[in-house]
Amino acid sequence: MRTTPLLALAALTLTAACSDSGTAAGAPGTTPGTSTSSAAATTSAAATTSATTSATTSASSTPKAPTSPAAQIPAGAGTATTVDLDGDGKPDTLWLADVGGKRELGVATTSHGGSVVEFSSAAPQSATASAAVLASGAPTVFLNTGRSVQLYVYRVENPGLVEVKGVTGQPYSFSLGFTDYGTGLTCTDGRLYGENATADAADRFTVTRTEVTVSAEHAVAENGAKTTVGTGLAADDPAVRAARGATCGDVPDSAVAKEPA
Fold this sequence. Notes:
Blueprint: E1 35-37, E2 45-50, E3 55-60, H1 69-72, E4 78-82, E5 92-99, E6 102-108, E7 114-119, E8 128-133, E9 139-144, E10 148-155, E11 160-163, E12 173-175, E13 184-188, E14 191-199, E15 205-215, E16 220-233, H2 238-242, E17 257-258
Antiparallel strand pairs: 1-7, 2-3, 4-5, 5-6, 6-7, 8-9, 8-17, 9-10, 10-11, 10-12, 13-14, 14-15, 15-16
């Protein structure tokens, strides 16, 4: 069973309204925890920071011997077959599970073992996860906790999931309309965009987007140019609906891992 933390930590949300420095006040998001990779590798560590409370914790990797993908996935986990994350030409597996009261996001690859990160969120919804290989070449995992979408990249060197940071070192996430900084994300031809749909007094919408470039090597996301998609749009306009997305383009439901209720 999923539990809701007593203390709501919030991640800085970086979306279409983010500053050039890649920082902005954000919606309650995810708080990363310990990261464990099952591939044989040297120990790697990533610093993680939860915003608004300015609480800082350290994430660490503890490598284990590679195992088969099926052996890495906890019993009862929500799983989905996803894109090739480790570059061996074969599809990999995303999973979400509650293990000993801890919420976990994991990947099981066909050639490089598995990797797990812990997360928490103040949102009452069960989480979902999807993935895409972006135009930059970054294998990117999108963790949707209901109010925001946190980014992770999969790196083959010291194999594992790594939390993506903004250029200032804060966790990078997209608001899903719970702040004034954005309403979602989308992808076009492998290019990732933070989207923001705002309504005027007549309930007509303006949609803007900011391209976001993700580096797998450095696990960093950087905002690019902001553009206007459309103005005076109806609520059911495809551009408005796309601006409320939580996956990288149209991802089939079968490719979305769902956290057990």
